[in-house]
Write a structure and sequence with these properties.
30% of the residues lie in helices and 23% in strands. By secondary structure, it is an alpha/beta fold. It folds into 3 domains: 87 residues, no CATH class; 58 residues, no CATH class; 148 residues, NAD(P)-binding Rossmann-like Domain (Rossmann fold, 3-Layer(aba) Sandwich), CATH 3.40.50.720. About 2% of the residues have low confidence.
């Protein structure tokens, strides 16, 4: 569960009068199911959301957090190592080690500014959390940390350590959820929209055919835009941060969508269709649309991970999502 969704659920609990505590994964060693920044939240009624492992330590953390909410102890770090079944020890079956920061969440929660920022969490019983953005001065109380903040801003990720004054901090990049623009309201698009939103993507569907691109077909989409692809991508504000999946399988929609996506420099551009369709679309882009050959080479097609052997629309959607995840994690060639 991403932090935005977690914050939304936390807000529902609080609106009902509940208090909330959080377990924040701040450090991992060896193998770990989740990375730093993963969160588990528990309210004073015992409801849980999120997670810091794949279920290995969540029940134990729930008890720690409920104790905090009862006023037993203060914010602190807990450590988990490898679990040994014969001793029923709570720990990680994967053999890793993790450190988790426990705290009662402030009310209201600090709201991140628009766009990208660096979240700064003070690992101290007195707590404290704020957001830093590029170009701002070194925050008070964070001596010698400006270079570290700038590094997180440029490269992303997380960091846990001490400032020059000995204060302990957890820093993490906060960025908008990645966005996928789907061109063509096909059966594959139905499944891909649902799957992508459940893995943290914001989805926009572009198709001029209103009878195909009905809002009720895409209840998870952020927007359904009834425009021709070049106008639709412009209306969506397509940029270098976006991924585009061209699923129309119709040259009248495919070609202008590819032109617009490539000219916008979208980080991922995938095209549905056989090897023959791929070759024809590429020839058209170069010879008739004047798109540079090196730009055309960026098109991923046939779209999706071929080794999955997907056939049915839902299976093809899974293969596309798998390729999108590889792109998101910087693992595409």
């Amino acid at each position: 569960m991403d932090t935005t969704t977690l914050d939304r659920e936390t807000g529902v609990w609080r609106n009902a009068g509940a208090r909330v505590a959080e377990a924040l994964l701040i450090h991992t060693q060896h193998s770990s199911p989740r990375g730093p920044g993963a969160r588990l939240r528990v309210d004073d009624r015992g409801r849980m959301a999120g997670g810091v492992s794949m279920g290995c330590v969540e029940n134990d953390l729930r008890e720690h957090l409920l104790a905090l909410l009862r006023g037993e102890g203060t914010a602190r770090t807990v450590h988990y190592g490898m679990a040994f079944a014969e001793s029923l020890e709570v720990g990680l079956s994967c053999g890793g080690e993790i450190d988790v920061w426990l705290r009662v969440l402030p009310d209201p929660l600090p709201v991140p500014p628009p766009g990208r920022s660096v979240r700064c969490v003070k690992l101290d019983p007195a707590g404290g959390e704020f957001f830093w953005r590029d170009g701002e001065p070194e925050p008070g109380g964070m001596r010698g940390m400006l270079e570290r903040l700038e590094g997180i801003w440029k490269s992303g990720g997380t960091w846990t350590g001490q400032d020059a004054g000995g204060g302990r901090w957890f820093l993490e990049e906060v960025a908008p959820r990645p966005r996928l623009i789907i061109v063509g309201a096909s059966p594959i698009a139905d499944s891909l929209c649902a799957l992508a939103t459940r893995t943290g993507w914001r989805v926009v569907v572009v198709d001029p055919r209103r009878e195909h691109a009905r809002a009720e077909r895409f209840p998870d989409a952020e927007a359904v835009i009834h425009k021709w692809p070049e106008e639709g991508l412009a209306a969506a504000g397509a940029s270098t941060e976006d991924a585009v999946a061209v699923l129309a399988h119709d040259a009248k929609l495919d070609v202008p969508a590819l032109v617009a996506a490539l000219r916008a420099g979208c980080r991922y551009v995938g095209l549905l269709g056989s090897a023959g369709t791929q070759a024809e679309r590429r020839r058209h882009l170069i010879e008739e649309e004047g798109v540079p050959a090196d730009a055309v080479e960026r098109i991923r097609g046939p779209i999706g991970l071929k080794e999955l052997g997907a056939v049915e629309p839902a299976e093809i959607a899974v293969s596309i999502l798998a390729e999108l995840i590889r792109c998101r994690r910087g693992r595409l060639g």
